[in-house]
Amino acid sequence: MTDEAFFELHRAIPRQGPGDASDVLWALSVVGEPARVIDAGCGPGADTETLAEALPLAQIEAVDLTTHFIEEARARLECFGPRVNTREGDMRDITGPADLIWCAGSLYFLGLETALPLWRGALAPGGAIVFSEPVFLSSPPSAEVAAFWADYPGVGTEAELRRRIAGAGFATRATRVITGRAWLNYYLPLMARAARLRIGAGPDLAAVLDAAEAEFARWRAAPDHIAYLLCVVAPE
């Protein structure tokens, strides 16, 4: 499996992880109407688009390390004009000040214990961070859920996640479980693209397609129990 083959599969799909516009709107119902927003690890800009639509007066910066994701996000977001800025860059380097740092499905690149203290300095007074993280809905998890997250170390219950957040010096203001439709928003376009690419795929791409289809099959085994937890947190 090569990076080139992986990114060939992940081109030209609406989002790069589970999510839904309703998740963004829920978070904004908690944090209010931030004037300055950073979307860290924005991918092709699905959530950035919802943020821009919901916050017509906000200045928004969308950041991602992958060139073609930023190119897709820029094309998607150009209708909002200069108030939405897209740039290729590392999530480690965001500076703010931001009233809201949004990071859906990307925090694992840094890890919670690294990202939250690192981003504290990028928050404006009263600012919040919203991120999603894998979570077990029961303890112990079912065999299907454990198998799905087998390659993702450190997954725990919401209580355990809240303790990690507190250990990083943040308070949890609100949480929302993400299952079902939000995952289909990611998987259905991905699987449709995989089917199109299957014909004529070389060995590297075929291996990537096999892995993606196996992941989707594992998700389908327990779609109501495989979850992210969307967390709204603020410095203590």
From TrEMBL:
Keywords tagged on the record: Methyltransferase, Transferase
InterPro entries per UniProt: Methyltransf_25 (IPR041698), SAM-dependent_MTases_sf (IPR029063)
Name of protein: Class I SAM-dependent methyltransferase
Methyltransferase domain sequence ranges: 37-127
One GO biological process term: methylation
Matches recorded under Gene3D superfamilies: Vaccinia Virus protein VP39
Taxonomic path: Bacteria, Pseudomonadati, Pseudomonadota, Alphaproteobacteria, Rhodobacterales
GO MF, any single term: methyltransferase activity
Keyword DNA-binding: no
